[in-house]
Amino acid sequence: MSDESDSVSSTRGVTPDDLLHTGATDNPSAEDLVLASGKDLTPANLEWAERTLAREGRAAIDKRLP
Prior knowledge:
The protein has a domain at 27-62. The chain is globular and about 40 Å long. It is built from 4 helices and no strands. α2 packs across α3. By secondary structure, it is mainly α. Residues 1-30 are annotated as: Disordered.
């Protein structure tokens, strides 16, 4: 079986913590925000995400992730 830090455990179906969290040092993209919000990647949603990131910065994605 592969190391759980690299993939989802096939026996338990649990994603390891280090794969769930984005970390505080990265800069989320509009695509990241759209997906974190559970929306489809459409031009309108990408425009919304760009505006939201410009207004809220990193906090925009932090609000939407566990």
